[in-house]
Amino acid sequence: MFLEQGIKPENVFWKYLIGSVFIITTSFIGQIPFTLAVYFNYNGKDAFPTESDAALKMFEPNLTLFLVMISFAFAFAGVWFVVKYLHHQTLLSVTTSRKKIDWNRILFSFALWSFFSILSFLFVYYQSPDNFVWNFKLIPFLILVAIGSILIPIQTSTEEYVFRGYLMQGFANLAQNKWFPLLMTSLIFGSMHWFNPEVTKMGNIIMIYYIGTGLFLGVITLMDEGMELALGFHAANNLIGALLVTSDWSVFQTNSIFKDMSEPSAGFDVILPVVVVYPILLFIFSKKYNWTNWKERLTGKINVLQIPN
């Protein structure tokens, strides 16, 4: 019933297009503090930074993280506004089909992926310890923990509300089925990472990881009839990653524990999470939450006549 909660006669698809433009606009408004900081920090000698890479490296990493993450708080407010006033829904209705948000699901997913993330990092580290240097500084790291623990979940939750909540219900309104929203949100989610420096460094093959991650998050949302597992996974993925390791070629640098000094390359290790790790997670979730009827939940049609008023 998760997708069906957004199916209403008045929720025509063009409203989701307008809502998306509004959310993007609020995100741009949220970028004003970062833009002003770049402007006032500009020394007038070098060329004014027009590319994001140069702008992101102008400040101390914790300040950069804070300024970048602010825009997601504005975007989240935009999501709330369009859901409430454009679609006349509650935020709960684009979060879960349950009567209230299941925080135990969020915490379980967060803990499970944190465990997998730390384990996989340790494996990579002990395979090639020379590729990493100790980057830990107590005060900057504690500041990172404070900023990251608040703002990174806001960032990841905003993305989940946009893709696995708002847009997934929007495409369900358009197609009246479940496979189309799953496919479209996965492709759009992956495409949003196209301009990340990781793509430039590793090549287009890394898009398999981004799109595959979007597909995984969509599958667990549809199978579990809510976003809680996706919210926990996404928060763990970004927060643990920011705390554990940074590199000069990532989107932005952090005061993490380690720094990866290796030259990035994409191989089977990029595809491994999609074809091996994510199926293991699906198996764990399916056993814990007794998922059944996979075909109907992922590809079935939406019967509007069965939707309560």
From TrEMBL:
InterPro entries referenced in this protein's UniProt entry, alphabetically: Rce1/LyrA-like_dom (IPR003675)
Protease recorded as keyword: yes
Annotated keywords: Hydrolase, Membrane, Metalloprotease, Protease, Transmembrane, Transmembrane helix
Residues annotated as domain CAAX prenyl protease 2/Lysostaphin resistance protein A-like: 142-240
GO MF term (any one): metallopeptidase activity
Record Pfam families: Rce1-like
Keyword DNA repair tagged: no
Membrane-spanning ranges: 12-42, 62-86, 106-126, 138-158, 179-196, 202-222, 229-246, 266-285
GO biological process, one term: CAAX-box protein maturation
Protein name per UniProt: CPBP family intramembrane metalloprotease
Source organism of the structure: Flavobacterium pectinovorum
